[in-house]
Amino acid sequence: MGTVLTVRDINVYYGAIHAIKGISFDVNKGEIVTLIGANGAGKSTTLHTISGLLRSKTGDIEFLESSIARTPAHKIVAKGISHVPEGRRIFQRMTVEENLQMGAFVSKPERIAHNLEYVYEQFPRLKERTKQIAGTLSGGEQQMLAMGRALMCDPRLLMLDEPSMGLAPILVDQIFEIIQNLHKAGTTILLVEQNAQMALSVADRAYVIETGRITLSGTGEELAKSDEVRKAYLGG
Amino acid sequence: MKTFGKRKLSPYAKDSAISYGLVTAAFVIVSILNSMGLVSSSLQGQLVPICCYIVMAVSLNLVVGISGELSLGHAGFMSVGAFTGIVISGILETSGLPDVGRLIAAILCGAIMAGVFGFLIGIPVLKLRGDYLAIVTLAFGEIIKNFMNIIYAGKDSTGFHLRTNPDLGLEPTGRMLLNGPMGATQVQRIASFTAGFILVLVTLFIVQNLMNSKQGRAIMACRDNRIAAESIGLNVTKYKLMAFTVSAALAGMGGALFGLNYSTLLPIKFNFNTSVLILVFVVLGGLGNIWGSIIAATILTILPEALRQFADYRMLAYAIVLILVMIATYNPFLRSRVMMLRDKIIPKKDKPDEGRKPRTRRKKSGKEVG
Ligand SMILES: Nc1ncnc2c1ncn2[C@@H]1O[C@H](COP(=O)(O)OP(=O)(O)O)[C@@H](O)[C@H]1O
Ligand SMILES: [Mg+2]
Fold first, then answer.
1. Is the pLDDT score of B328 beyond 50?
2. Closest Cβ–Cβ partner in B5, B218, B353 for A105
3. Residue A182 domain-assigned?
4. pTM exceeds 0.90
């Protein structure tokens, strides 16, 4: 099983704020790896650093055996890391299908039709709404659209930042079902969540982040059973 | 735009064809009326400026409406284009080139020079966002104006001279082309209404093709949601810079034509008031709405002249008209009526750009036009 992503000792600052204090972890091919932690722990910052929007002062980030620590953000997408940012960032004024087409901006044009079909297969809800203006979709549908758009560029690694945030429980279930489907289809996923219970239930491996440091790691099952995690994140 | 949204290509192509047709029709009608002597002499004098301001408004719309960045220094690029055009035309005066050739050369050089300025200014400016960006574009507009104030240029038998002080050491037979704060004098007026019409068509062609291209989609995506645009691998700065540079180059074209329409031109003409005036065209016509820009630029250029009979109350009347148009345009009821009417005339298609909230409401433009 090959390693897709290796993050080694990254330190990230927002001006004087030291947000990430020496984090290291890796993601293997075909895995779902989850980073869980409270609000403000540094989960999104970690994803932003991987996708090149922020830079680490130390260490290295390797993707498919080459360093991407200095690669510009737009080239990292082309290399195969697709990032679904927190908070349903969609193109409000474009239709569902136009949003999806935009997702394939960096990939080969001949892949678009095939990938569109794949996304509609994974997200039947989107297929019923191809011509709808994205801004008029419900919250859950917008999250699905953001995820579908990220799949349009044939990602080798899909990074999801709190896909369940602000969704009703039934939609959370649906989103996690889709995550599992993608996993079964072979997609490698790095999942960031505050909803530790759901995340641990689908993850192969997990890391707990607290104020910029990794404090625990293990398989999803192990962490779900561990006392510390139960106390801090699973309500006892 | 080969693979991107194929189904959209034909309605867009149709849309573009309609706009070229309408502009051409307007040109033909005005030309016929003019040849029949039915156009008043004051309006005749406005024909070229109207074309210039249409080019200015459409090009600014590319930045403010399509790319979503408020720019307050558009007159600066007009200025670069105007004085470049005047210098080029002046240099070529004795070359034996026909007026048309000189005009084309002047407009092309004006566009290139303004495009270069736009690119160089865009690099630092587009690192900023929102209000900061607006203020810095304002500052650059003023810098360009002051820069033009210290440029002296002239030519004589030894060639072309460019300095930042009046002492060019010209031969007695030489001719001053740019005279610092006094601007350009004795400019040969080679601009024509036909040239203006062609320039409007060229501008429409460039802007509409850009909007419907893959790059145009990317520019609008960066406007709609910067974070999402970054997440799909768009180089946001690159696309913003592309829109800004193309806009500046088009403004340079408009400026060159404008400059060659008057025998004298002062650098101070292209001040903040002119930038705001162009912005008013764009906001009134609707952000991202190319036709709106064309109509607003035309009406608001004619209006001050038409109001001349009100003498002292002219600017007051102008401001009131602006306010009334603004109220009417942004009245939800009236807007929905207009939409319905438009959908009847032009079959419905998904317009990405209906969020035309005015980003600034400036009711007064301050200066008369032309
Ligand atoms: N743009 C920013 N500027 C300054 N500090 C920030 C910024 N974004 C996040 N932070 C800080 O960095 C820390 C980690 O934030 P973040 O990665 O967003 O946490 P999480 O995603 O785990 O909720 C927090 O203390 C937060 O306040
Ligand atoms: Mg976060």
1. yes
2. B218
3. no
4. no
Flag if A146 and B214 touch (Cβ within 8 Å).
no
Of the candidates B62, B25, B222, the one whose C-alpha atom is nearest the C-alpha of residue A102 is: B222
Q: How far off is chain A from B65, nearest CA to CA, in Å?
A: 13
Q: Is the pLDDT of residue B368 over 70?
A: no
Q: Is A41 in the pocket of ligand 1 (CB under 6 A)?
A: yes
Nearest to A91 by CA among A102, A80, A83: A102
Determine the pLDDT at residue B11.
63
Q: Alpha helix (H) ranges present in B160-263?
A: 193-211, 214-224, 226-231, 236-259
Residue at A176 is within a domain: no
Closest CA–CA distance from residue B233 to any residue of chain A (Å): 4
**Local structure of residue B307 (DSSP, 8 states):** G
Sort out which chain B residues have CB atoms less than 8 A from A109's CB and list them.
Answer: 2-4
- Chain mean pLDDT for chain A: 94
A-chain CB neighbours of B227 within 8 Å are: 85, 89
Which domain does A36 fall in, by range?
1-80+158-165+188-236
- All residues of chain B having their beta carbon less than 8 Å from the beta carbon of residue A90 are 225, 228
Number of domain units in chain B: 1
Note whether A200 and A220 are same-domain residues.
Answer: yes
Number of compact structural domains in chain A: 2
- How far is residue B3 CA from its own chain's centroid? 31
